[in-house]
Model the fold of this input.
Amino acid sequence: MKSSILIIDDEVKLSDLMARILTLEGYHVLQATNAKTGIRTLEHEDIRVVLCDVKLPDANGVELVKKIKQIKPYIEVINLTAFGSISDGVLAIKNGAFDYLTKGDDNDKIIPLVNKAIDKANLQFRVNELQSQMETQHGFPIVLGTSPAILEAVELAKKVSQTDATVLLLGETGTGKEVFAEAIHYESLRKDKPFVVVNCSSFSKELLESELFGYKAGSFTGAVRDKKGLFEEANTGTIFLDELGEMSLDLQAKLLRVLENGSFIKIGETKTTKVDVRLIAATNRDLQKEADENHFRLDLFYRLSGFSIVLPPLRERIGDIEILARHFIKIYAGKIKKKMPEVDKQFIKLLNQHKWNGNIRELKNVIERVIILMDEPILTAKLLPYEFHSGGYFDMMALDLDSVEKYHIHRILKYAKGNKSEAARILGIGLATLYRKIEEYHLLN
Done:
């Protein structure tokens, strides 16, 4: 069965004839004799094209086009009239109609026109679906939690996302600053433009400058060709500078110029490069204190702090820990094709009692570990690292630290199917250290 078509026309005989013709073409056709019934049908049915009479008992069909487009923008509308007029035709197209036809004179055009309208509507429907998925994957729905602190941060972020204002995200490491930056970008008017992420702590001063602003060929050894910087790559979009507090004072001056007039000079270049970029910055440092101690430019601090959002640490979001944990459980179980496990109450209790100095990032890593280790379709407290068990599972079993380590290494070796290099990577230790532990704990196969 092809896509659905709705005919809105109070001339029942003509509507029935058109419905039969379209049905023979394989379309599913619905009918309404007035605008009110037609709108109700649109709201409850998957309609792609509407054939709408201009003169209806309760509405003007040309004006009705706007209302239909407001309800479902992807629907294409073809206006039909017994007495065509140029002014009505122009207004219909202006309101968003796909076409405007005179009844009787253009019967041979109906089927080809409907086919074209269906193709366009189906394409627009898929585009809308993809946009909706993008917003779900990248917008504020990815910020999980119901605690007052996180809801307040989200509300601020939603408001600023609709502007081009520079945003400073503050908070401890692992609180989700990049997630917030991404959400702000994808909820902004620049959402279809580039989103470029830069971790300032990952580069030396010289390398960071060349990465951000680019360089001219021959400006230094190894510069064999011109290089576009990341600010140019982000032009018309958003650039997210994470760990901004690590940036040198010289680069801070260059960044300030970009913020003030959208221009900079590449390394080895003499002319100015102009860009239109929105900046979102993040740091876990106290920039006010850094500025007072002359480690951060005061003028840049004032420029950045016009709109700042503080992201709360996980220990202040106790009610969100289970929500986040279940989210990560679903992700990591899916990655290694394990069935979604049940979760033991003691498991959640220990998660809630933990200090979470590493915040959401630490929780994410812990969940990945327990999913790797689980053998049964339930997550129990014994799967958690030993630091979670003060007065808990391991203490009750009177296991010493060596026993816990032996148990853990044994489980990881089992997961890695005996691959020592992979086990060492997961454990975060050297291969030689792993071999020594295997010998020490008699874990040899």
